[in-house]
Amino acid sequence: MMNAIVVRAFGGPEVLSFEAVPERLPGPGEVLVANRAIGVNFIDTYLREGIYKSAPPPFVLGNEGAGEIEAVGEGVGDFAPGDRVVYTSNLGAYAERTVVPAKNVLKLPGAIGFEDAAGSLLKGLTAEYLLHRTFKVGPEHTILIQAAAGGVGLLLTQWAKHLGATVIGTAGSPEKVALVRANGADHVIDYTRENFVERVREFTDGKGVDVVYDGVGKATFPASLDTLRPLGLFVSYGNASGVIEAFDILLLSQKGSLYVTRPTLGVYTNHREILLEQGDNLFGAIESGIVNVAVNARYELKDAADAHRALEGRKTTGATILLP
Ligand SMILES: NC(=O)c1ccc[n+]([C@@H]2O[C@H](COP(=O)([O-])OP(=O)(O)OC[C@H]3O[C@@H](n4cnc5c(N)ncnc54)[C@H](OP(=O)(O)O)[C@@H]3O)[C@@H](O)[C@H]2O)c1
Fold it and tell me: Which of 42, 224, 252, 321, CA to CA, is 20 to 30 A from 214?
Protein backbone atom coordinates (compact mmCIF):
# COMPACT_ATOMS: atom_id res chain seq x y z
CA MET A 1 0.00 0.00 0.00
CA MET A 2 1.05 3.64 -0.51
CA ASN A 3 -0.37 7.09 0.24
CA ALA A 4 -2.21 8.94 -2.52
CA ILE A 5 -4.81 11.65 -3.14
CA VAL A 6 -8.04 10.05 -4.37
CA VAL A 7 -11.02 11.79 -6.00
CA ARG A 8 -13.97 9.88 -4.47
CA ALA A 9 -16.66 11.98 -6.23
CA PHE A 10 -16.53 15.03 -8.53
CA GLY A 11 -16.58 18.28 -6.56
CA GLY A 12 -14.60 21.00 -4.79
CA PRO A 13 -11.21 20.65 -3.07
CA GLU A 14 -12.95 18.88 -0.14
CA VAL A 15 -13.42 15.73 -2.25
CA LEU A 16 -9.63 15.17 -2.30
CA SER A 17 -9.02 12.31 0.10
CA PHE A 18 -5.55 11.36 1.40
CA GLU A 19 -5.60 7.60 1.84
CA ALA A 20 -3.66 4.35 1.52
CA VAL A 21 -4.28 2.70 -1.85
CA PRO A 22 -3.11 -0.62 -3.33
CA GLU A 23 -0.01 -0.60 -5.53
CA ARG A 24 0.76 -2.52 -8.68
CA LEU A 25 3.90 -3.44 -10.60
CA PRO A 26 4.53 -1.97 -14.07
CA GLY A 27 3.03 -3.99 -16.94
CA PRO A 28 4.41 -4.28 -20.49
CA GLY A 29 5.64 -0.88 -21.74
CA GLU A 30 5.28 0.74 -18.30
CA VAL A 31 7.65 2.00 -15.61
CA LEU A 32 7.20 2.52 -11.87
CA VAL A 33 8.34 5.96 -10.70
CA ALA A 34 9.00 6.87 -7.05
CA ASN A 35 7.78 10.47 -7.09
CA ARG A 36 10.04 13.07 -5.41
CA ALA A 37 7.97 16.09 -6.53
CA ILE A 38 4.53 16.33 -8.13
CA GLY A 39 3.25 19.18 -10.31
CA VAL A 40 -0.06 20.89 -9.52
CA ASN A 41 -1.85 22.07 -12.67
CA PHE A 42 -5.14 23.77 -13.38
CA ILE A 43 -6.21 20.68 -15.34
CA ASP A 44 -6.18 18.79 -12.01
CA THR A 45 -9.04 21.04 -10.84
CA TYR A 46 -11.06 20.38 -14.03
CA LEU A 47 -10.62 16.60 -13.52
CA ARG A 48 -11.54 16.90 -9.83
CA GLU A 49 -14.70 18.85 -10.68
CA GLY A 50 -15.64 16.61 -13.61
CA ILE A 51 -15.36 19.40 -16.23
CA TYR A 52 -12.97 17.04 -18.06
CA LYS A 53 -14.29 13.51 -17.59
CA SER A 54 -11.33 11.32 -18.52
CA ALA A 55 -11.99 8.93 -15.62
CA PRO A 56 -14.99 8.18 -13.37
CA PRO A 57 -14.32 8.44 -9.60
CA PRO A 58 -12.67 6.99 -7.65
CA PHE A 59 -9.27 7.77 -9.20
CA VAL A 60 -5.87 9.02 -8.09
CA LEU A 61 -5.48 12.60 -9.37
CA GLY A 62 -2.36 14.19 -10.90
CA ASN A 63 -0.81 14.60 -14.33
CA GLU A 64 2.86 15.27 -13.71
CA GLY A 65 5.68 14.03 -11.52
CA ALA A 66 9.45 13.75 -11.22
CA GLY A 67 11.45 11.07 -9.43
CA GLU A 68 13.42 7.86 -9.83
CA ILE A 69 12.53 4.73 -11.75
CA GLU A 70 12.00 1.85 -9.31
CA ALA A 71 11.07 -0.90 -11.76
CA VAL A 72 10.46 -1.37 -15.48
CA GLY A 73 7.91 -3.60 -17.23
CA GLU A 74 8.41 -6.07 -20.03
CA GLY A 75 9.75 -4.61 -23.28
CA VAL A 76 11.02 -1.33 -21.77
CA GLY A 77 14.55 -0.77 -23.05
CA ASP A 78 15.00 2.99 -22.66
CA PHE A 79 14.84 3.17 -18.86
CA ALA A 80 16.41 1.32 -15.92
CA PRO A 81 15.95 1.41 -12.12
CA GLY A 82 17.67 4.46 -10.65
CA ASP A 83 17.13 6.73 -13.69
CA ARG A 84 16.07 10.28 -12.82
CA VAL A 85 12.93 11.03 -14.84
CA VAL A 86 9.96 13.33 -15.29
CA TYR A 87 6.61 12.51 -16.88
CA THR A 88 3.29 14.07 -17.83
CA SER A 89 -0.13 13.26 -19.32
CA ASN A 90 -0.94 10.43 -16.98
CA LEU A 91 -3.51 10.27 -14.16
CA GLY A 92 -2.15 8.99 -10.87
CA ALA A 93 0.70 11.39 -10.07
CA TYR A 94 -0.67 12.58 -6.68
CA ALA A 95 0.89 9.54 -5.00
CA GLU A 96 4.12 8.23 -3.52
CA ARG A 97 4.64 6.03 -6.58
CA THR A 98 3.06 6.04 -10.05
CA VAL A 99 2.97 3.49 -12.86
CA VAL A 100 3.46 5.42 -16.11
CA PRO A 101 3.60 4.36 -19.79
CA ALA A 102 7.30 4.59 -20.73
CA LYS A 103 6.31 6.62 -23.81
CA ASN A 104 5.28 9.49 -21.48
CA VAL A 105 8.61 9.57 -19.61
CA LEU A 106 11.68 11.75 -20.22
CA LYS A 107 15.14 11.36 -18.70
CA LEU A 108 16.03 14.36 -16.59
CA PRO A 109 19.30 16.21 -17.31
CA GLY A 110 21.58 16.24 -14.24
CA ALA A 111 21.38 20.03 -13.93
CA ILE A 112 17.59 20.04 -13.40
CA GLY A 113 16.30 19.09 -9.95
CA PHE A 114 13.10 17.16 -9.22
CA GLU A 115 11.21 20.23 -7.96
CA ASP A 116 11.98 22.33 -11.03
CA ALA A 117 11.14 19.36 -13.27
CA ALA A 118 7.75 18.74 -11.63
CA GLY A 119 7.06 22.48 -11.64
CA SER A 120 7.85 22.95 -15.30
CA LEU A 121 7.24 19.93 -17.53
CA LEU A 122 3.52 20.14 -18.28
CA LYS A 123 3.48 23.94 -18.21
CA GLY A 124 6.75 24.27 -20.12
CA LEU A 125 5.79 21.81 -22.87
CA THR A 126 2.59 23.84 -23.20
CA ALA A 127 4.55 27.09 -23.54
CA GLU A 128 6.85 25.34 -26.05
CA TYR A 129 4.05 24.29 -28.40
CA LEU A 130 2.05 27.52 -28.01
CA LEU A 131 5.03 29.70 -29.03
CA HIS A 132 6.67 27.38 -31.59
CA ARG A 133 3.92 25.19 -33.06
CA THR A 134 0.46 26.78 -32.63
CA PHE A 135 1.99 30.01 -33.95
CA LYS A 136 5.68 30.66 -34.58
CA VAL A 137 6.38 33.75 -32.48
CA GLY A 138 9.25 36.03 -33.59
CA PRO A 139 10.61 39.58 -33.27
CA GLU A 140 8.02 40.90 -35.74
CA HIS A 141 5.12 39.96 -33.44
CA THR A 142 3.28 41.65 -30.61
CA ILE A 143 1.45 39.17 -28.40
CA LEU A 144 -0.95 39.33 -25.45
CA ILE A 145 -0.61 36.77 -22.63
CA GLN A 146 -3.61 36.60 -20.30
CA ALA A 147 -2.87 35.60 -16.65
CA ALA A 148 0.83 36.11 -17.30
CA ALA A 149 1.84 35.63 -13.63
CA GLY A 150 0.55 32.04 -13.60
CA GLY A 151 2.44 28.82 -14.12
CA VAL A 152 2.15 28.69 -17.91
CA GLY A 153 1.98 32.50 -18.10
CA LEU A 154 5.41 33.22 -16.60
CA LEU A 155 7.07 30.63 -18.86
CA LEU A 156 5.29 32.07 -21.92
CA THR A 157 6.37 35.58 -20.97
CA GLN A 158 10.07 34.74 -20.56
CA TRP A 159 10.27 32.51 -23.64
CA ALA A 160 8.40 34.96 -25.89
CA LYS A 161 10.78 37.74 -24.85
CA HIS A 162 13.73 35.50 -25.72
CA LEU A 163 12.16 34.98 -29.16
CA GLY A 164 12.17 38.76 -29.59
CA ALA A 165 8.42 39.43 -29.45
CA THR A 166 6.84 42.49 -27.89
CA VAL A 167 4.95 41.03 -24.92
CA ILE A 168 1.87 42.48 -23.25
CA GLY A 169 0.72 40.60 -20.14
CA THR A 170 -2.31 40.79 -17.89
CA ALA A 171 -2.43 39.89 -14.19
CA GLY A 172 -4.85 40.15 -11.28
CA SER A 173 -3.06 42.25 -8.64
CA PRO A 174 -0.33 44.92 -8.33
CA GLU A 175 2.09 42.28 -6.95
CA LYS A 176 1.44 40.00 -9.93
CA VAL A 177 1.86 42.94 -12.32
CA ALA A 178 5.29 43.65 -10.80
CA LEU A 179 6.26 39.98 -11.12
CA VAL A 180 5.31 39.83 -14.80
CA ARG A 181 7.25 43.02 -15.47
CA ALA A 182 10.29 41.57 -13.65
CA ASN A 183 10.03 38.55 -15.96
CA GLY A 184 10.53 40.75 -19.00
CA ALA A 185 7.08 41.77 -20.30
CA ASP A 186 7.09 45.10 -22.15
CA HIS A 187 3.67 46.18 -20.85
CA VAL A 188 1.56 44.73 -18.02
CA ILE A 189 -2.11 45.41 -17.32
CA ASP A 190 -3.96 44.75 -14.06
CA TYR A 191 -7.14 43.49 -15.71
CA THR A 192 -9.04 43.54 -12.41
CA ARG A 193 -8.72 47.36 -12.36
CA GLU A 194 -8.14 48.43 -15.97
CA ASN A 195 -9.94 47.79 -19.28
CA PHE A 196 -7.43 45.48 -20.96
CA VAL A 197 -8.87 46.01 -24.47
CA GLU A 198 -8.37 49.79 -24.25
CA ARG A 199 -4.87 49.39 -22.78
CA VAL A 200 -3.79 46.92 -25.50
CA ARG A 201 -5.08 49.33 -28.17
CA GLU A 202 -3.01 52.13 -26.56
CA PHE A 203 0.15 50.01 -26.42
CA THR A 204 -0.22 49.01 -30.09
CA ASP A 205 -1.17 52.45 -31.51
CA GLY A 206 -4.66 51.13 -32.17
CA LYS A 207 -3.49 48.24 -34.33
CA GLY A 208 -4.04 45.29 -31.97
CA VAL A 209 -1.87 42.25 -31.31
CA ASP A 210 -0.97 39.39 -33.66
CA VAL A 211 -1.88 36.64 -31.18
CA VAL A 212 -3.63 36.43 -27.83
CA TYR A 213 -2.84 33.45 -25.60
CA ASP A 214 -5.79 33.02 -23.26
CA GLY A 215 -6.00 30.38 -20.52
CA VAL A 216 -8.56 32.39 -18.52
CA GLY A 217 -11.56 31.48 -20.70
CA LYS A 218 -15.04 32.70 -19.81
CA ALA A 219 -14.07 35.93 -17.97
CA THR A 220 -11.94 37.33 -20.83
CA PHE A 221 -14.22 36.22 -23.69
CA PRO A 222 -15.17 37.78 -26.07
CA ALA A 223 -13.08 40.81 -25.00
CA SER A 224 -9.84 38.99 -25.92
CA LEU A 225 -11.02 39.02 -29.56
CA ASP A 226 -11.12 42.84 -29.46
CA THR A 227 -7.38 43.01 -28.71
CA LEU A 228 -6.50 41.39 -32.07
CA ARG A 229 -5.49 42.97 -35.37
CA PRO A 230 -7.47 41.92 -38.46
CA LEU A 231 -6.61 38.28 -39.29
CA GLY A 232 -5.16 37.85 -35.78
CA LEU A 233 -5.17 34.53 -33.91
CA PHE A 234 -7.11 33.80 -30.72
CA VAL A 235 -5.50 30.87 -28.90
CA SER A 236 -7.91 29.66 -26.23
CA TYR A 237 -5.86 27.12 -24.29
CA GLY A 238 -7.65 26.96 -20.93
CA ASN A 239 -10.68 27.75 -18.75
CA ALA A 240 -9.40 28.97 -15.37
CA SER A 241 -12.51 31.19 -14.93
CA GLY A 242 -14.95 28.78 -16.63
CA VAL A 243 -15.54 27.29 -20.06
CA ILE A 244 -16.34 29.66 -22.96
CA GLU A 245 -19.91 29.05 -24.09
CA ALA A 246 -20.92 28.34 -27.67
CA PHE A 247 -20.80 31.51 -29.78
CA ASP A 248 -21.93 32.74 -33.18
CA ILE A 249 -19.15 32.14 -35.73
CA LEU A 250 -20.10 35.41 -37.45
CA LEU A 251 -18.40 37.13 -34.50
CA LEU A 252 -15.05 36.20 -36.07
CA SER A 253 -16.02 37.86 -39.32
CA GLN A 254 -17.32 41.01 -37.58
CA LYS A 255 -14.16 41.41 -35.48
CA GLY A 256 -11.74 41.22 -38.43
CA SER A 257 -11.69 37.77 -40.09
CA LEU A 258 -10.07 36.32 -36.99
CA TYR A 259 -8.61 32.83 -36.55
CA VAL A 260 -9.41 30.74 -33.48
CA THR A 261 -7.84 27.57 -32.14
CA ARG A 262 -8.42 25.54 -28.98
CA PRO A 263 -5.28 23.39 -28.70
CA THR A 264 -4.28 20.79 -26.13
CA LEU A 265 -0.87 19.41 -25.13
CA GLY A 266 -1.80 15.74 -25.54
CA VAL A 267 -2.11 16.04 -29.30
CA TYR A 268 1.65 16.73 -29.41
CA THR A 269 2.90 14.51 -26.59
CA ASN A 270 1.02 11.47 -27.93
CA HIS A 271 3.78 11.31 -30.56
CA ARG A 272 6.97 10.13 -28.87
CA GLU A 273 9.23 11.92 -31.37
CA ILE A 274 7.46 15.26 -30.75
CA LEU A 275 7.58 14.78 -26.97
CA LEU A 276 11.35 14.10 -27.16
CA GLU A 277 11.87 17.20 -29.31
CA GLN A 278 9.73 19.33 -27.00
CA GLY A 279 11.56 17.97 -23.94
CA ASP A 280 14.94 18.85 -25.47
CA ASN A 281 13.72 22.38 -26.26
CA LEU A 282 12.34 22.89 -22.75
CA PHE A 283 15.32 21.43 -20.88
CA GLY A 284 17.64 23.49 -23.13
CA ALA A 285 15.65 26.63 -22.33
CA ILE A 286 15.89 25.91 -18.58
CA GLU A 287 19.59 25.01 -18.63
CA SER A 288 20.54 28.09 -20.65
CA GLY A 289 18.46 30.41 -18.48
CA ILE A 290 15.99 31.37 -21.25
CA VAL A 291 13.29 30.44 -18.76
CA ASN A 292 13.58 30.40 -15.01
CA VAL A 293 11.24 27.92 -13.31
CA ALA A 294 9.40 29.70 -10.52
CA VAL A 295 8.35 27.04 -7.98
CA ASN A 296 6.68 29.53 -5.65
CA ALA A 297 4.63 27.17 -3.45
CA ARG A 298 5.25 23.73 -1.96
CA TYR A 299 2.72 21.59 -0.07
CA GLU A 300 2.90 18.15 1.47
CA LEU A 301 1.02 15.59 -0.61
CA LYS A 302 -1.62 15.21 2.12
CA ASP A 303 -2.42 18.95 1.79
CA ALA A 304 -3.28 18.82 -1.92
CA ALA A 305 -6.72 20.33 -1.18
CA ASP A 306 -5.03 23.47 0.18
CA ALA A 307 -2.93 23.70 -2.98
CA HIS A 308 -6.13 23.53 -5.07
CA ARG A 309 -7.81 26.22 -2.94
CA ALA A 310 -4.84 28.55 -3.48
CA LEU A 311 -4.66 27.87 -7.24
CA GLU A 312 -8.38 28.36 -7.81
CA GLY A 313 -8.43 31.34 -5.41
CA ARG A 314 -5.88 33.18 -7.63
CA LYS A 315 -3.42 33.21 -4.72
CA THR A 316 -0.53 31.55 -6.56
CA THR A 317 2.13 32.76 -8.99
CA GLY A 318 4.36 30.52 -11.08
CA ALA A 319 4.31 26.80 -10.24
CA THR A 320 2.98 24.89 -7.22
CA ILE A 321 4.26 21.43 -6.31
CA LEU A 322 3.36 18.64 -3.88
CA LEU A 323 6.02 16.74 -1.91
CA PRO A 324 5.22 13.09 -1.13
N1 LIG B 1 -4.38 23.42 -23.51
C2 LIG B 1 -3.29 22.97 -22.95
O3 LIG B 1 -2.52 22.24 -23.57
C4 LIG B 1 -2.95 23.40 -21.54
C5 LIG B 1 -1.87 22.84 -20.87
C6 LIG B 1 -1.55 23.34 -19.60
C7 LIG B 1 -2.33 24.33 -19.02
N8 LIG B 1 -3.42 24.79 -19.70
C9 LIG B 1 -4.24 25.87 -19.15
O10 LIG B 1 -3.41 26.95 -18.88
C11 LIG B 1 -4.01 27.79 -17.90
C12 LIG B 1 -2.97 28.09 -16.84
O13 LIG B 1 -2.68 26.88 -16.13
P14 LIG B 1 -1.74 26.92 -14.85
O15 LIG B 1 -1.77 25.55 -14.28
O16 LIG B 1 -0.46 27.56 -15.20
O17 LIG B 1 -2.58 27.88 -13.86
P18 LIG B 1 -2.22 29.38 -13.40
O19 LIG B 1 -2.11 30.25 -14.61
O20 LIG B 1 -1.08 29.34 -12.48
O21 LIG B 1 -3.51 29.78 -12.60
C22 LIG B 1 -4.64 30.30 -13.26
C23 LIG B 1 -4.63 31.84 -13.24
O24 LIG B 1 -5.75 32.27 -14.00
C25 LIG B 1 -6.14 33.54 -13.54
N26 LIG B 1 -7.60 33.62 -13.38
C27 LIG B 1 -8.40 34.53 -13.95
N28 LIG B 1 -9.65 34.36 -13.58
C29 LIG B 1 -9.69 33.31 -12.74
C30 LIG B 1 -10.72 32.67 -12.01
N31 LIG B 1 -12.00 33.06 -12.06
N32 LIG B 1 -10.40 31.61 -11.22
C33 LIG B 1 -9.13 31.17 -11.16
N34 LIG B 1 -8.10 31.76 -11.84
C35 LIG B 1 -8.38 32.82 -12.62
C36 LIG B 1 -5.43 33.78 -12.20
O37 LIG B 1 -4.41 34.75 -12.42
P38 LIG B 1 -4.74 36.33 -12.14
O39 LIG B 1 -5.09 36.44 -10.68
O40 LIG B 1 -3.51 37.02 -12.51
O41 LIG B 1 -5.92 36.66 -13.00
C42 LIG B 1 -4.82 32.44 -11.87
O43 LIG B 1 -3.63 32.57 -11.13
C44 LIG B 1 -5.22 27.01 -17.38
O45 LIG B 1 -6.37 27.49 -18.03
C46 LIG B 1 -4.93 25.60 -17.83
O47 LIG B 1 -6.07 24.84 -17.99
C48 LIG B 1 -3.73 24.35 -20.93
Answer: 321
